Amino acid sequence: MPPPPPPPHLRGVAPAPVAAAPSFLRLPVHTRLRVPAPRAAAASPVPASHSPHEHDADLLSRAADVADRSAGLTSPHPNFGCVIARPQRENDSAESFVVGEGFLYAQGTPCAELLAAQEAGEHARGATAYLNLEPGDCYGDSTAIGSLVQAGIARVVVGLRHPLKHLRGKAIQALRSEGIQVDVVGEDLQTKPFEGALKSCLTVNAPLLYRAAFNVPFSVLKYAMTADGKIAASSGHASWVSGKASRGRVFELRGRSDAVIVGGNTVRFDDPRLTARHVKGHVPVRIVMSQSLNLPEEANLWNVNEAYTIVATQRGARRDFQKKLAMKGVEVVEFDMLNPRDVMSYCYDRGYLSVLWECGGTLAASAISASVIHKVCAFVAPKIVGGVNAPTPVGELGMSQMTQAISFIDVTYEQIDRDMLISGFIQPIPDLSPVIPSVDKIPSIDPEVSPYETDIISFYKTWDTFGAFSNFSSHPIHMPDDNGDYFTWPTVEHYYQAHKFVGVDNPQARTIIQEIKLAKSPEEAARIGRTRQKEFPELVCLNIVLSFNLTMVGRDEGKS
Question: Mind telling me the catalytic residues?
Answer without folding.
Answer: 113
